[in-house]
Amino acid sequence: QVQLVESGGGLVQSGGSLRLSCVASTSIFSRYAMGWYRQAPGKQRELVAIITTIGNTNYAGSVKGRFTISRDNAKKTVYLQMSSLKPEDTAVYYCWASYYEEYWGQGTQVTVSS
Question: 42: burial class by Cβ within 10 Å (0-12, 13-18, 19+)?
């Protein structure tokens, strides 16, 4: 069982920036594909960004050019740098890990005020 612990959420004004972090409790972190999803009130959970074991990345169209996903295997951590935030980015952001099985974090709230 892998535990994922997110941090870095909060309240920010439109146009601002935040960096989310997710620490994984596994000794084989480098074997996991990692990602971030988000869920806004009344909406389905959606993919934000994914990073593979070799560092390839993929982004939702709505965040491309504004968000950057990265990983530090030594720290067992995946990051989501969010810039030029918009009110529509408001959601609970979830960390995701996948290696034969999938795991989810508990979520961290990001609120962007207009």
Answer: exposed
Calculate the alpha carbon distances from 66 to 81, 89, 106 in Å. Answer: 8, 11, 24
Residue in the structure block whose two tokens are 């962007």: 112
Contact criterion met (CB below 8 Å) for 108 and 45: no
Residue 89 three-state SS:
helix
> What residue has token string 């952001």?
93
Instruction: Please give the pLDDT value at position 101.
Output: 96
CB 38 within 8 A of CB 94: yes
Each residue's pLDDT tens digit, 56-76 = 999 999 999 999 999 999 999
Single-letter code of the amino acid located at 57: T
